[in-house]
């Protein structure tokens, strides 16, 4: 089983990227787990669509090969970040005639973490609307919403002391969900 993580933050020390790293450990040997690198994807421009830039073709291929996609989204102004929307806009376009867009039917999980009180709940709700429109198969429960991140950070490193159990529960659920088993 292959799980592809898409992190909606490009910064190296991103809390959400660190959360994805901890999710990889929670999944363990049950799946290959890879964080998608998409910092080189250009701003979407319909004039650039065909043929797709190489970097876009490469990220589409990664999604195509994944059995499930796990989103880790920050919250920007009560929504998900523009870099994530830009990536999803590229992924949402058909690759060619009779080749549907790569997100179609893919199992999806959503998590997020913020230093503030929101925990990314609002951003996640917006993301659900977008991913539903694209016909992803979203695991709506459990989702993981982590507020007050700094209480779980030591020396800049996310330790996830209190939330680790919830991440483990979500990882178990997503492995089952991707494998087609209800929990
Ligand atoms: C443009 C911008 C808007 C933000 N808006 C929100 C917000 O609406 N709610 C919130 O909880 N945090 C908000 N934040 C703070 C982010 O949650 C915080 O920067 C977080 O660490 C970003 O995720 P990352 O660590 O994965 O990069 C915002 C940050 C930025 C840069």
Ordered list of secondary-structure elements with their pairings:
Layout: E1 2-7, H1 15-27, E2 32-35, H2 54-65, E3 68-72, H3 82-91, E4 107-113, H4 121-133, E5 137-138, E6 144-146, E7 153-154, E8 157-158, H5 164-178
Parallel strand pairs: 1-2, 1-3, 3-4, 4-5, 4-6
Antiparallel strand pairs: 7-8
Descriptive account of the structure:
This protein is an alpha/beta fold. It has a single domain, classed as Flavodoxin domain (Rossmann fold). Helix 1 crosses helix 5. The chain is globular and about 50 Å long. The structure holds flavin mononucleotide. The site of flavin mononucleotide has 14 residues, from helix 1.
Q: What would the keywords be for this entry?
A:
Rossmann fold, 5 helices, six-stranded parallel sheet, 183 residues, alpha/beta, binds flavin mononucleotide
Largest sheet: 6 strands, parallel
Shape: globular
**CATH superfamily name?**
Flavodoxin domain
Strand content: 15-25%
Helical fraction equals 25-40%
- CATH topology type: Rossmann fold
pLDDT below 50 for ≥5 consecutive residues: which ranges? none
List the domain count as a whole number: 1
The hetero molecules present are: flavin mononucleotide
Quantity of strands, as a count: 8
Broad structural category: alpha/beta
Structure annotation, total helices: 5
What's the gyration radius in Å? 16 Å
Looking at how many chains there are and whether they match, the oligomeric state comes to single chain
- Overall CATH class: Alpha Beta
Gap between N and C termini = 18 Å
CATH architecture: 3-Layer(aba) Sandwich
Mean pLDDT: 96
What is the string of SSEs from the N terminus onward? Answer: EHEHEHEHEEEEH
């Amino acid at each position: 089983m292959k799980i592809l993580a898409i992190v909606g933050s490009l910064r190296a020390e991103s809390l959400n990227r660190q959360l994805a790293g901890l999710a990889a450990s929670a999944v363990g040997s049950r799946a290959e787990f890879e964080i998608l690198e998409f910092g080189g994807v250009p701003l979407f421009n319909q004039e650039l669509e065909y043929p797709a830039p190489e970097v876009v073709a490469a990220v589409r291929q990664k999604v195509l090969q994944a059995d499930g996609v796990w989103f880790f989204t920050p919250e920007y102004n009560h929504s998900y970040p523009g870099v994530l929307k830009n990536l999803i806009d590229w992924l949402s376009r058909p690759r060619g005639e009779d080749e549907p867009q790569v997100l179609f039917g893919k199992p999806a999980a959503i998590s997020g973490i913020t230093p503030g009180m929101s925990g990314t709940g609002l951003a996640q709700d917006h993301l659900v609307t977008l991913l539903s429109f694209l016909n992803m198969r979203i695991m709506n429960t459990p989702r993981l919403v982590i507020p007050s991140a700094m209480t779980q950070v030591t020396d800049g490193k996310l330790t996830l002391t209190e939330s680790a159990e919830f991440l483990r529960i979500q990882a178990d659920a997503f492995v089952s969900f991707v494998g087609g088993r209800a929990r």
